[in-house]
Design a protein that fits this description.
Elements lengths: L1 E7 L7 H11 L4 E7 L10 H6 L1 H13 L4 E4 L7 H7 L4 E3 H12 L3 E5 L5 H10 L6 E6 L4 H6 L1 H19 L3 E4 L7 H9 L2 E3 L1 H19 L30
Parallel strand pairs: 1-2, 1-3, 3-4, 5-6, 5-7, 7-8
Helix pairs in contact: 1-10, 5-10
Length: 251
């Protein structure tokens, strides 16, 4: 049985249980999840500055996963912070929760909408859609105006607002697929699908199943990201090439 590490890039275990629950709902028996969070760090990643802070510690955990012969690593945040940096430094597949969700959504309908917590998140989600080439499929990003702490404290209210925002995205934005930026409770996707008649992507399930696919390909055919061009591996510390033009020093 191979392992897939899921790294929640926050300094709290508050999201680990719901993550494992989402994984177990769809997990293939030959893949074993290892869910980890950072020993120290922000409680959530609503701000870009916090997202930058956790890239280093997340990379350290991902290196531990590779040393442990894991077959894939998932970054458990819809913003996908550090996704490209980790791919640059590791050989095993690295999956971003947001990227995997949007890629899956693009196969389920012509246009999709993302339901986010706050307007603050909209710019980063739209920019990530552009980076992954998914912007042409993105109908809208709709916010429910709740912070991460508020959503944790009032999950019922949060998902009621998600339902309303999803209905508006379908009726007014032309969305055929709804992508949630937070892992949903059991049965929520099925309920929303029956109410609205559209496809629904839960980011936890999407990221895990994408990771399973990549883990199988990595194990059987060593399929992973390219190591030339954008994901070229940096040289070891101390082996960096000298600059082409030496710096000019004051006399």
């Amino acid at each position: 049985m191979g392992t897939i590490w899921w790294i929640n890039p926050v300094g709290t275990a508050a999201f680990d249980e719901e993550t494992l629950r989402a994984i177990e709902a769809v997990r293939a028996p030959h893949h074993r999840p290892v869910v980890r969070h950072l020993e120290d760090g922000p409680q959530h990643l609503e701000y870009r500055s916090d997202g930058q802070r956790v890239i280093g510690p997340t990379l350290q955990l991902a290196r531990a996963a590779e040393a442990d012969a894991a077959q894939a690593v998932v970054i458990g945040c819809f913003f996908d912070g550090g996704l490209r940096e980790l791919r640059e430094c590791l050989g095993l597949p690295v999956i971003g929760m947001g990227e995997a969700s949007m890629l899956l959504a693009s196969t389920l309908g012509h246009r999709f909408s993302v339901i986010a917590g706050r307007r603050k998140w909209t710019a980063q989600i739209e920019q990530n859609a552009l980076l992954s080439g998914m912007d042409r499929h993105l109908a809208s990003v709709r916010a429910v105006n709740m912070t991460v702490p508020e959503a944790l404290a009032e999950p019922g209210m949060f998902f009621d607002r998600v339902r309303d925002a999803a209905r508006s995205a379908v009726d007014h934005d032309g969305a055929e697929v709804i992508v949630l930026s937070e892992i949903a409770p059991p049965g929520f996707a099925r309920t929303l699908r029956s109410e609205l008649g559209v496809a629904f992507v839960d980011p936890g399930m999407a990221a895990w199943k994408w990771a399973e696919m990549m883990a199988d390909l990595y194990e059987r055919e060593e399929v992973s990201h390219a190591e030339v061009g954008g994901y070229e591996r940096p040289p070891p510390v101390g082996d960096s090439p000298a600059p082409v033009n030496p710096p000019i020093r004051a006399t």
